[in-house]
Amino acid sequence: MRKIARLTGLTRPTVRDMVVRFERSGLESPGPSKIGDINLEGGLYGALGAKPGRRKLPEPDWPVVTRELKCKHVNLQVLWEEYRAEHPDGYRYSRFCDLFRRWPPAAGHAPKPCRRREAVPRLRWRYGADRGGSTDR
Hints:
Number of strands: 0
Largest sheet: none
Oligomer: single chain
């Protein structure tokens, strides 16, 4: 492996990792030249978009979440607690909220930030000045 690393300009751990991946892939030695780059990469590193070792969590039913949020006294915390009761190994609250905000149809229904209100100019009363007109006491 040292010789391969020196010839290719890669580090020894990288070469070792590639050899282990190649052995696990079940590909044949003279085969890579016949397979093609895309198939070889898929055999060594897996399919695009799929991350090995990453658990796939049950996805909440976002249309139901959106509909339930319109009910009185219901918020994301309550809906997340119901989701966790059904799926104890599901998403944590922060990830649940993050996924809800990124869910496309919910983008229009997500709570909007408070709009900024302009400060009302203070009224200045000049005490003792003539206010015009008569005053009743």
